[in-house]
Write a structure and sequence with these properties.
The chain has 172 residues and is of the alpha+beta class. 29% of the residues lie in helices and 30% in strands. It has one domain: Aminopeptidase (3-Layer(aba) Sandwich), CATH 3.40.630.30. The chain contains 5 helices and 7 strands, in the order βαααβββαβαββ. The structure holds coenzyme A. Coenzyme A (COA) binds next to strand 4, helix 4 and helix 5. The site of coenzyme A (COA) has 17 residues, from strand 4, helix 4 and helix 5.
Length: 172
């Protein structure tokens, strides 16, 4: 099989992706790791999409290897800088290894296409897959904010990760 360049499998999200992205976002395996856990309605989802589309500092992206969409990524640039926060989820039924490919592709897009200087991520302390994912992609843990997130039942620590362009290893 031809080896794909994951960075080339990233494209901007379109309105035709709305149903699929909402289904991924509302899936219990994704929702449990989000900072907002309620089930998102299509109305709320549409408002978010239309608002984000007008924000020049926001990039909503789809990871789509072999024309098959399997994940969502968002970069939000901090105003006036080349530093961005990211968020992401793989399709709950995606094949093993898709999450890592999504990460590699998104970082290629961030550093080569958006020319970012730094990508920052935050993970709830119980989100072990995301913590392993960040570490495996070369992110440094830059902080642990204690009891930062309240999920309406209990408080959770939040881990902060950062990856500089100079630390990025495209051939990981
Ligand atoms: C975060 C996320 C994208 C990370 O992806 P991932 O779980 O690393 O996905 P992968 O499919 O690449 O890897 C899954 C596991 O299969 C393993 N794996 C990878 N390729 C494999 C293969 N070919 N065969 C068997 N196992 C494989 C990986 O090593 C990994 O194991 P680990 O969990 O022990 O590290 C994904 O977990 C996700 O979407 N989570 C829900 C949303 C979320 O938490 N978003 C982030 C908020 S901060």
């Amino acid at each position: 099989m031809t080896k794909i360049n994951p960075g080339k499998s990233i494209r901007l999200m379109r309105s035709t992706d709305l149903d699929l992205v909402l289904a991924w976002r509302n899936h219990p395996d994704v929702r449990r790791y989000m900072f907002t856990k309620h089930e998102i309605t299509m109305e709320e989802h549409l408002r978010w999409f239309e608002h984000s589309a007008q924000d020049k500092e926001k990039y909503l992206l789809i990871y789509e290897p072999y024309a098959n969409p399997v994940g969502f990524i968002q970069f939000s640039k901090l105003p006036g800088s080349a530093v961005a926060d990211w968020g992401f989820y793989a399709a709950p039924d995606a094949a093993k290894g898709s999450g890592r490919q999504l990460g590699l592709g998104a970082l290629d897009y961030a550093f080569c296409h958006l020319n970012l200087h730094k990508v920052c991520g935050q993970a709830l302390a119980f989100n072990e897959p995301s913590i392993r994912f960040h570490r495996a992609l070369g992110f440094h843990q830059e902080g642990l904010i204690r009891d930062q997130h309240f999920d309406s039942q209990q408080y959770h620590d939040v881990l902060c990760f950062g990856l500089l362009r100079s630390e990025w290893q495209p051939d990981l």
